[in-house]
Design a protein that fits this description.
Radius of gyration: 23 Å
Number of strands: 2
Shape: elongated
Length: 195
Amino acid sequence: MVRTVVSFVQNGYFLLLTFVTGLFYFSFYLVALTLGLSLSFTVAGVPLLTHVLRTTTAFLQFERVQTKIYTDITTEPCVKPVNSDVSNWLQAKKELMNLRRWIAIGWLLLKFPVGILSLMIAVLLYAVPLVLIAVPFLYPFLNLSFMGASVDTVAQAMTLSATGVVLLMVSCRLADRLARLMGGYTRLMIKHVNR
């Protein structure tokens, strides 16, 4: 029982972390790439773009570690490019022409809509059952209604609470499967980047 509760909470953290990281990647790359591309006609834009492209390896590694910690899904390591002893401008050109980096940015940007979906699922799986379970404690103080019918008796409140308990049990199973599905996204992302 304790293991199930810990797994349920851990899956919730992972679903919320998916949203937070997706929002971060979207914001970071939107600002950094826009700034780098707009400054590319100056000397400052190219180094900015190359440094932004180099962040993909660190972010992919972070995704691998988080997926392993929360879902116990092992993914293959990211392929790191070999740095050769060439001039800075040739290295920058090599970074800008590296298709893997751009594919990684695309996958990391796609994590934003996946994160929004993950947030909605987390709210449905975690908040709704807990609110329904708390209805017997809340209905005397609040004017509650459920699906158009007002909750004003103890029997109705207990029925909703029992429904919340059943939904919580179903949510435990669904949260595990959905967290594994989100972990599968990380595996798929790294697989496509490593091609």
